[in-house]
UniProtKB/TrEMBL annotation:
This is Uncharacterized protein. It comes from Vaccinium darrowii. The lineage of its organism: Eukaryota, Viridiplantae, Streptophyta, Embryophyta, Tracheophyta.
Length: 380
């Protein structure tokens, strides 16, 4: 609270307790806030910065990361927990360098759970002090590995009171990735059949739960350690891909296949198991890798051509729709994810937490696969 007193000019007593009028003037997005303004309270904060690509050792915890002015639709969140996604470790290693290298240093992180610290002038659905959780778009440059994260209003929703910040931070990015594939692209509905290839990971596990909540018949592939958990989540069939031949074990065809693995063999199997008119969606699209390899001018058109070729090929040979799928902000989807999380129908188990000061250790543990499940950084 000394920081508040120092930046606002409030007395020490006011900074600690503060009258309602003082705090209203301090945080309100009205004319008064333009005079006092959040920028005068927090202009910089701790953040995990990526100055160059490499191993976990390149990550730097700095005390002077700038806190930007909020745009009208943006929200400043005091982070309490942020999860470590596979995208974070891949970006740290150089994935997406064609986009991010000119912008270094950047802040990693996509998921966040915390409290609203300030809101932009047009924000209406969220208020200061409210507990929220959400996720940034994959291409965001200022991520959530920080004391204060900036997200747009439609990237956040109320945190369910029934779960902790640690639990909440593990959910949104993975769940929104699954939501985009199953609900926005395939538009699954009650009674349909869904196959999730790789149900043991965060996106796969979220996809199984979303499909079950929709009323679908769900099958999934996974390692032996995930079978019981996926059956408990409502999957009708969980196949150990290390010991069973998927094509021999599965006796049905599907309306939608979400392939979280995305290698040629899983693509072949997934497409062959689809009904005509079904949707195959892979998380392993080639746009980023081709752009990294050849640059934006050549890589992006090449990726577009490859995708179009596959879409035409499979439409004529199998009568199915083929998609590369990515996470996108979806206010309606996030609200439904919140509702499911609130009643215990959607959760992502957290295997281990680290303080944000041990971010290198957290990344190293994920790189070396010492922790198979979700890792969360606690921000205190």
């Amino acid at each position: 609270m000394r920081l508040l007193s120092r930046f606002t000019g409030l007395s020490s007593n006011a900074a600690v307790g503060g009258s309602d009028s003082e705090w209203a003037a301090l945080f309100s997005p009205s004319v008064n806030s333009k005079k006092l303004g959040f920028r005068r309270i927090v202009t910089s904060c701790r953040a995990v910065v990526l100055p160059r690509f490499g191993g976990p050792e390149v990550l730097e915890l700095r005390d002077d990361a700038s806190v930007p002015d909020l745009k009208p639709n943006e929200v400043l969140v005091r982070a309490r927990a942020v999860s470590v996604n596979p995208l974070d470790t891949r970006m740290r290693s150089g994935y997406g360098r064609s986009l991010f290298e000119p912008l270094l240093p950047i802040i990693l992180g996509r998921d966040v759970s915390g409290e609203v610290a300030a809101v932009g002038a047009s924000v209406r659905s969220l208020s200061i002090g409210q507990e929220v959780f959400g996720a940034l778009h994959p291409t965001a440059v200022r991520g959530t590995y920080a004391d204060y994260a900036v997200l747009s209003e439609d990237e956040l929703t109320s945190k369910p009171v029934s779960i902790s910040h640690v639990e909440a931070s593990a959910i949104p990015f993975a769940a929104l990735t699954a939501w985009r594939a199953l609900k926005s692209t395939a538009r699954i509905s009650e009674g349909q059949s869904v196959l999730v290839v790789g149900g043991g990971g965060a996106v796969g596990y979220a996809a199984v739960q979303l499909a079950v909540a929709t009323g679908c018949h769900v099958s999934t592939t996974c390692g032996s350690e995930s079978i019981d958990r996926l059956l408990a989540a409502g999957a009708e069939q969980a196949i150990d891909y290390t010991t069973q031949d998927i094509e021999l074990v599965i006796k049905r065809q599907f309306d939608a296949v979400l392939d979280t693995i995305g290698v040629p063999e899983t693509e072949r199997v997934g497409i062959n198991l689809l009904k005509r008119g079904g949707h195959y969606m892979t998380l392993q699209g080639e746009a980023a890798s081709l752009t990294d390899r050849y640059g934006v001018a050549i890589g992006l058109p090449t990726a577009t051509a490859i995708l179009l070729k596959k879409q035409i090929q499979y439409r004529y040979s199998h009568g199915i729709e083929y998609w590369w799928t990515y996470m996108r902000a979806d206010a309606e989807g996030l609200d439904q994810i919140r509702r499911l999380s609130e009643v215990g129908k959607l959760k992502i188990p957290v295997d281990k937490t680290f303080p944000i000061t041990q971010v290198r250790e957290a990344h190293e543990a994920k790189d070396k696969r010492r922790i198979p499940g979700k890792v969360v950084l606690e921000v205190d």
